[in-house]
Amino acid sequence: MARLEVLPLVEKEKEKIVDTMIGQELKNMQILAKMKLKKPKKPKKPKKAKKKKNKLPGAKAIADKDDYELLVELINHNIVKKLPPQRLTEFIGEFNYIHSMLDDITQSPRDPSMALIR
Fold first, then answer.
1. For 93, which of 6, 15, 81, 118 is 20 to 30 Å away at the CA?
2. Cα–Cα distance measured from residue 56 to residue 58, given in angstroms and rounded to the nearest whole number
3. pLDDT for 86-111, tens place per residue?
């Protein structure tokens, strides 16, 4: 007899607990569905390298010329000197002993002497 009185109360409590658990599961499923619906970001396309415009005076006059043509013109006007070809054996210099003692691994390396190049 006590069982018949307590059983409906326990069942109502169970229903409430189960309803709250189902509600939480539904919320979780909705959140997961929203996350899956979001489109992944498209990878950015690499930009094409554009030719830089010169901001120098007279840049319009040389805009259509090639680098080689500009160099030839500078040589003709004696702005750039064309040097005769040289060999490495023609460099004169001795080994720089102090330079090798001053080299530090933590710093960037210094320029080599002519003897080191030879």
1. 81
2. 6
3. 887 776 666 666 665 665 656 666 66
